[in-house]
Structures are given as structure tokens and as C-alpha cells.
């Protein structure tokens, strides 16, 4: 059974049209998330983004920023951003962020107080 928030591309054979579609999805994910993560066992090491392993888990920038603000925060109690990680600031992402703030407020996605 699929879990909420998970995306799966299945295990079937891919024709050219499906490969192209999957490529577009991965490009979109790459604009709003990151899969190069530091794991719990590397917590005492300095791990740069280029050296971090690519994971099956893609984590959104908002969550990575939240984790980076406190040392004990992690995704799935296991993964954190690499030590030199910083959020990409593209025009596309800036526009998306501004539209979300206008529609939902600047505290959207933060824990409720």
C-alpha cells in the first residue's frame, strides 16, 4: 500500500514516452528537493554535498532548512542535510515560494504553536 507523500515509478518496462515523462518528474523534484543526504552514522563527520550519497528519499528544501536549524533534527530519525548544504535560489523557486506565501502566509509548513 502506498504511503502518504511517497512517489514510486514502478518496476515495469519503460518505453521512450514514459522515460521522457519520468525525466521531467525528476527534473521538477530536483528543483524543490534534494536526495544527497548525510545519515545518522555520519553525524560526527563533516560530509560535503558532493560526497553525500544519493538516497531513494527526496527531501524538500523547507524540511532541509528546518533540519539545519537544530542539530538534533532529522528526517525519518536518520537523515540530515550535508554540512555545506544551502538552498538553491533560482527565479523559478523564488516565484513559487512567493506564491505560497501570498496564498498561505509566511509560516506555512512550520510546526503549529
Task: Supply the key terms.
16% strand; globular; three-stranded antiparallel sheet; 113 residues; 3 strands; 3 helices; single chain; alpha+beta
Major sheet: arrangement of strands: 2-1-3
Report the count of strand segments: 3
* Average residue-wise pLDDT: 85
What is the overall silhouette? globular
Task: Tell me the span between the first and last alpha carbons.
Answer: 32 Å
Given helix and strand content, the structural type is alpha+beta
Q: Largest sheet, described in full? A: 3 strands, antiparallel
Sheet-strand content, in percent, reads 15-25%
Number of helical regions: 3
Cα-based radius of gyration, to the nearest Å? 16 Å
Order of helices and strands: HEEHEH
Oligomer: single chain
Q: Percent of residues in helical segments?
A: 25-40%
**Would you identify the regions where 5 or more consecutive residues have pLDDT less than 50?**
none
Describe the structure.
With 113 residues, the chain is α+β, with helices and mostly antiparallel strands. It has a domain at 37-104. It is built from 3 helices and 3 strands, in the order αββαβα. It has helices at 16-32, 61-68, 91-104; strands at 33-39, 53-60, 79-81. A 3-stranded antiparallel β-sheet has the order 2-1-3. The longest helix has 17 residues, at 16-32. The radius of gyration is 16 Å and the shape is globular.
Amino acid at each position: 500500500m502506498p504511503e502518504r507523500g511517497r512517489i514510486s515509478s514502478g518496476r515495469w518496462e519503460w518505453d521512450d514516452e514514459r522515460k521522457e515523462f519520468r525525466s521531467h518528474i525528476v527534473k521538477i523534484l530536483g528543483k524543490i528537493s534534494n536526495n544527497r543526504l548525510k545519515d545518522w552514522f555520519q553525524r560526527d563527520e563533516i560530509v560535503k554535498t558532493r560526497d553525500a550519497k544519493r538516497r531513494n528519499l527526496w527531501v524538500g528544501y523547507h524540511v532541509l532548512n528546518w533540519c539545519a536549524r537544530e542539530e538534533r533534527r532529522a528526517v525519518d530519525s536518520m537523515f540530515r542535510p550535508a554540512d555545506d548544504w544551502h538552498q538553491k535560489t533560482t527565479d523559478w523557486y523564488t516565484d513559487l515560494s512567493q506564491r505560497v506565501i501570498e496564498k498561505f502566509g509566511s509560516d506555512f509548513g512550520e510546526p503549529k504553536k
